[in-house]
Write a structure and sequence with these properties.
Layout: E1 8-12, H1 17-29, E2 34-38, H2 48-58, E3 62-65, H3 72-77, H4 79-96, E4 101-107, H5 129-142, E5 148-152, E6 155-156, H6 166-175, E7 179-183, E8 187-188, E9 191-192, H7 193-206, E10 210-214, E11 220-221, H8 222-232, E12 239-243, H9 262-265, H10 275-281
Helix pairs in contact: 1-7, 2-4, 4-5
Amino acid sequence: MILNAENTIWITGAGGLIGHYLVRTAPLYVPRACVYGLTRAELDLMDGAAVQARFAHDAPALVIHCAALTRSPHCQARPALAHRLNVELTEQLAALARTASFIFLSTDLVFDGLAAPYAENAPVNPLGVYAQTKAAAEQIVLAHPGHVVVRTSLNGGSSPTGDRGFNEQMRRAWQQGQCLSLFTDEFRAPIMAEITARAIWELAASGRPGLFHVAGSERLSRWQIGQLLAERWPSLNPRIVAGSLKQYTGAPRPPDTSLNCEKAQRLLSFPLPGFSAWLAAHPAGTF
């Protein structure tokens, strides 16, 4: 599709972190498009008939599907709901958009964390319910030759609810006086949601289908991420202690899901930054 044309675009999950940034940045990348940021209040995605009727009415040329049940403990506790939201809904939307452009947001957690960094062609081995539903949905989306899957990592930023970014969750905990135990042996490739949104818009404009990794260029442990944010917010009196996956007893967590993003990077007009570099380039009041 031609992204500067007067097309209609759906962004599901607009009340979440990445969806919110996609809606916010749409005027920069698709200034003439009619963009619908779909929240639960706007459209109940669990209502299949309503979704089909709205899709027929709007006839979107591009659907960016961010809506999902994303919190791993919730997915572990309610696997049927996770499957309904993350797999069945994705299947419906991907089919409705079979003649349009469709971009599905997935996760680095589809990997088991034993062979990082992961390129797109690495075999997946999801450990928890959330990751399993995302891996299943990826296969459904990629069965449509023109569709796109974007895997990303921990995203930060300012969400409408104030609790979706990893930075927001840590800040809220410290504001409540909590001491956070952060793993020194669990690694991710954190990225700010505004960067993820920019990359998604550019990938959409490229017209290239398939699977892409979009994450930060710096591999950091949870402990290192906490240290960086603690340095940024000394007024919160942030407290952290070093923890280890070896002592963790909850839902399964992969130790290292850092991503190789070279495939997407070749199509982007800007370098995907590491989290430390992004923080250094942005003042403390940015989030």
